Amino acid sequence: MASCRCRLSKATTSKPMRPFETLTEQEILALAIALEEEDARIYDDFADGLKENHPEQAKKFKELRRDEDGHRHRLLDLHKQRFGDHVPLIRRQDVRGFVQRRPVWLVRPLGLKAVQKAAETMELETKRFYEAAARRATDAGVRQLLGDLAEEERNHAHAAEQIAETKLSEDESARQKRLFVLQVIQPGLAGLMDGSVSTLAPLFAAAFATHSSWATFLVGLAASVGAGISMGFAEALSDDGSLTGRGHPWARGFVCGLMTTVGGIGHTLPYLIPNVKTATSVAVAVVLVELGVISWVRHKFMDTPLSSAVLQVVLGGVLVFLVGILIGSS
Fold first, then answer.
1. Least enclosed by CB within 10 Å: which of 90, 145, 230, 256?
2. How far is CA 303 from CA 3, 56, 170, 261, 308, in A?
3. pLDDT in tens, 7-23
C-alpha cells in the first residue's frame, strides 16, 4: 500500500506543466521553434544511425532535417517581426499534452522499423500541435504560417511512413496498429507490469507471515485494487492526449488501472484455496505465466528483443518475490 501512495504522490507532485490553452501567441511560436529544433536534431541522429546499413533512408532523413530547419527559420522570422529578438524558453516537457519520447535515436545499431515508427509519431504529434495552435491564433500572419506548417507536417508523416515501406514488407494497417499500441497496449502493459510485479511482495509476505489463505487473499485483493486506482490516476494525469493521439486520458487511465488490478488479482485468486501451501504453489505458477505474457507483449508490440524482455521482467519479478518471502519469514 505504501508503494501505491508513493506512485500517486509522484504523479500529483511532479513538476507543474502549463495547459496548452494558457499559452500566448508568443509562447506558441517559441514552443514551435523548440519543437522544430528538437525534431531536426533527432532526424540528424536518425540519418547518422542509418547511413551504414540503410543509406537511402538516411538521405531521406537528412532531407527531413533540412525541412525542419526551414520551418524553424520561418518561425524565427515571424517571431522577430511580431515580438522581437528574445525567444522565451518553453519546451515540450513544460506543456501538458505532449508524451515523453523514448530515445530511440540513441540506440545502436538503429533499427529501420523503430525509426519509422518514431518519425511518424513525431510528425503526427507536431501536426496536431500546429492545428491546435492555428485555431487559437488571432493574428492572421501567425495563423497562416501555423496552418501551412500543419499541412507540411502531414506530408512529412506520409513521407516518414513511406521511408520504411521501401525496405519493409509491412501492410498498411500499421497506422491503426500504432494507434492501438498508443491508446491500449502501452497503458495496459504498464498496468499489467505494475500489478503483476509490485503486488508480489505484500502477497507472499502475507502468505509466509500468516500461513492463512484467506488473510493472504485479502492482502492481495487490497494491494491489487489500490495499485489499480493509483496507476489509473497516474496514467490519466500524465498526458491529455490532445497533441499525441493517445486517446482520452480517462480511457487510458481506465485501461491502465484495470490491467494493474488484473495483474495483481491473477496470483491472488489461488489463495481462495484453503490449503496455503497448495495455494502458494498455484500462485507461483500463475506468476510465471503472467511474466511470460508480459515478456511476449513487450516483444510483440514494443520492439523489445524477446531475450531482453524476459530477462528484465523475470529479474524484476524474482527480486520482488524474494523480498516478500524474506519479509514474511522474518
1. 90
2. 29, 23, 15, 25, 11
3. 444 444 455 788 888 99
